[in-house]
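Hey, resending since the last one bounced:
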Amino acid sequence: MIAPTSVVRLKDQNGCLGDRQFRIGYYSRQDGLNVVWLVNELGEYQECVDQRDIRLRFEVLSQSDESDLYGKDRPVLEPVVPVS
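The structure tokens again:
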């Protein structure tokens, strides 16, 4: 399972890295741990994918050591800063 606040980059249809980067949002107790929320460059929870999609369609650029999966009492996530 990927930790919240990690940074990922979307791969294109050929498996090459694209230019879209996302921060992994905090998980929702209602949705469960298989629903991974992607936070866009504006700091907005944009869309969700599952854990399988993360492994297949994204490359992890920065793995977080965040241990609070649900973000209780955590500050709002900042927009992702592009990683080269």
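Residues 7-62 form one domain.

Sorry for the duplicate.
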